[in-house]
């Protein structure tokens, strides 16, 4: 594995795949403006750790495997409190050399078709990592189990919030 120098974010992915090399690196989460857009303020010391491995398949296809990890602070949509979410990305894409290959073979129609990516000798790794982290964000961020309830639910503590089972209603009708 060879680390990518901090100042360099562009690599030749064709060479990376051909040689079967792996690059790894770390960059500041604050450098991901698109990812952080509309989010809560993030601690300044947070980083994104990533690795990018290239390989060539038996039929000559070239592949990239990206793994990335970052921790972001989001607002829970249930209880409205802040929480930290671990974003983990582990994805594999096939490299293609032109737009025609990118859209060939009905790639959008078959869910089993691997994702394709337009390769380049000046490929922006930072942008790829940020794109994949954006895709890993939940549509509705929330705790697994909220640590606190909203004030309105706490005040309604004495009320019974359970719905009657529709089968219990049918059982009552059967008794009549």
Placed side by side, the strands forming the largest sheet appear as 1-3-4-5-6-7
What is the molecular shape?
flat
Low-confidence runs of at least 5 consecutive residues: 1-7
In percent terms, what proportion of residues is strand?
25-35%
Major sheet characteristics: 6 strands, mixed
What class do helices, strands and sheet pairing give?
alpha/beta
Number of strands: 8
Number of helices: 6
Number of domains: 1
Summed over residues and divided by their number, the pLDDT gives a mean of 81
Please give the oligomerization state of what you see. Answer: single chain
Order of helices and strands: EEHEHEEEHEEHHH
Helical content (DSSP H or I, runs of 4+): 10-25%
End-to-end separation in angstroms reads: 76 Å
Rg, please? 24 Å
Chain-wise SSE layout:
Elements lengths: L1 E2 L6 E2 L1 H7 L2 E7 L4 H4 L10 E10 L5 E14 L6 E15 L2 H5 L12 E3 L4 E2 H12 L14 H5 L10 H10 L1
Parallel strand pairs: 1-3, 6-7
Antiparallel strand pairs: 2-8, 3-4, 4-5, 5-6
Which tags fit this structure?
single chain, alpha/beta, 6-stranded mixed beta sheet, 176 residues, 6 helices, disordered N terminus, two-stranded antiparallel sheet, flat
Characterize the structure shown.
The protein is of the alpha/beta class. The chain has one domain. The chain contains six helices and eight strands; from the N terminus they run E-E-H-E-H-E-E-E-H-E-E-H-H-H. It is flat. It starts with a strand and ends with a helix. Plays a role in synthesis, processing and/or stability of 23S rRNA. Keywords: Ribosome biogenesis. Belongs to the DUF177 domain family. It comes from Yanghanlia caeni.
């Amino acid at each position: 594995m060879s680390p990518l120098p901090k100042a360099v974010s562009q690599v030749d992915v064709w060479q990376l795949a051909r040689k079967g090399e792996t690059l790894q690196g770390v960059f500041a989460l604050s450098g991901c403006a698109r990812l952080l857009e509309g989010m809560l303020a993030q601690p300044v010391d947070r980083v994104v750790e990533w690795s990018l491995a290239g390989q060539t398949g038996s039929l000559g296809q070239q592949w990239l495997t990206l793994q990335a990890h970052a921790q972001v602070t989001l607002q829970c949509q249930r209880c409205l409190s802040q929480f930290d979410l671990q974003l983990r990305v582990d994805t594999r894409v096939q490299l293609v050399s032109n737009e025609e290959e990118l859209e060939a073979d009905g790639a959008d129609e078959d869910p089993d078709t691997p994702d394709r990516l337009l390769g380049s000798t000046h490929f922006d790794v930072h942008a790829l990592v940020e794109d994949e982290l954006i895709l890993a964000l939940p549509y509705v961020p929330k705790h697994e189990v909220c640590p606190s309830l909203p004030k309105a639910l706490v005040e309604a503590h004495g009320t019974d919030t359970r719905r009657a089972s529709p089968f219990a209603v049918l059982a009552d009708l059967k008794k009549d």
